Amino acid sequence: MRYKIILVWVGILISSAVFGWFGRYYYTSKLENGISTSYLAKFIKTPMPRIEVLNIDSVRVRSSDLFGNAATVILLFDPYCPHCHDQIKEILVHQSELMEVKFCLITPFPFYQMHKTYDDFQLKNMKNIFIGVDDKNYLLSYYNITGVPSMLIFDKDRKLIKAFLGGVNYKEILSAVE
Predict the structure, then answer these.
(1) End-to-end CA distance of the chain, in Å?
(2) Which residues cross the membrane (predicted)?
(3) Which of 25, 45, 96, 171 has a C-alpha 20 to 30 A away from that of 11?
(4) For the whole model, what pTM was predicted?
C-alpha cells in the first residue's frame, strides 16, 4: 500500500513537470517577430478589434474613441490577481517614463470590482490610463487569452505589434511603442 501511494505521488510530480514545461513552452515561446505568446502570433499586424467597454462613469466607450492615434497598451487584468496588481504597480512606479504611453486597463469582471481597483490604485489623476469593464468578454474570447495579466500593445495605427502573457517590465513596453 505504501509503495502504491509513493508511486502515485511520483506520477503526479512527473506529470506536473511535463505539463508545466509544455504549458510554459506553448504559452510563452519567443518568436522571431518579438511576440511573447505563440498563440497570438496570427494577430500581429492586424487591427484592434472594435469593442465597447464600460468606463468608470458607467458609460460605454468604443475602442476607436480611446486615445486617438497614439500607441495603446491594453492590459487585461483580474482585480484580485496579485500578478495583475504587480503589473499595475510597475506601470505606476514608472509613470514618468511611461507618460506618453496610453494604457487601457480592461477586465471582464463586474463593475464594482473594477471600481475597487480604480480606487485602490488611485487612478483618478492618471491622464494616460483608462480603466473599463469588457462585460461581453469580447477581448478574451477574440484573442483566446488564457491567463492574466495579458498585455496587448498596439501602434498608432491600432495594429497589434506585441503581446505578452504575464508580467512585463516597463522597458519592454517603452521599446515596443517606440
Answers:
(1) 62
(2) 6-27
(3) 25
(4) 0.78
Question: Nine-digit cell at 105?
Answer: 486597463
Q: Which three cell numbers stand for residue 176?
A: 515596443
Edge-first strand order for the sheet with 160-165 is 60-62, 52-55, 129-133, 102-107, 72-76, 150-154, 160-165
Pairwise CA distance, residues 81 & 85, whole Å: 6
Distances in Å between the Cα of 115 and the Cα atoms of 52, 106, 137, 147, 174 are 17, 11, 17, 21, 27
Residues 118-146 have pLDDT tens digits of 999 999 989 999 999 999 999 999 998 88
User: What string of DSSP letters covers 71-94?
Assistant: -EEEEE--TT-HHHHHHHHHHHHT
Residue 53 predicted with pLDDT over 70: yes
Quickly list DSSP for 144-163.
Answer: T--SSSEEEEE-TTSBEEEE
At 74, the amino acid letter reads I
DSSP code for 44: T
Q: Write the CB contacts of 174 (distance below 8 Å, at least 6 apart in sequence).
A: 97, 98, 101
C-alpha cell at position 37: 505568446
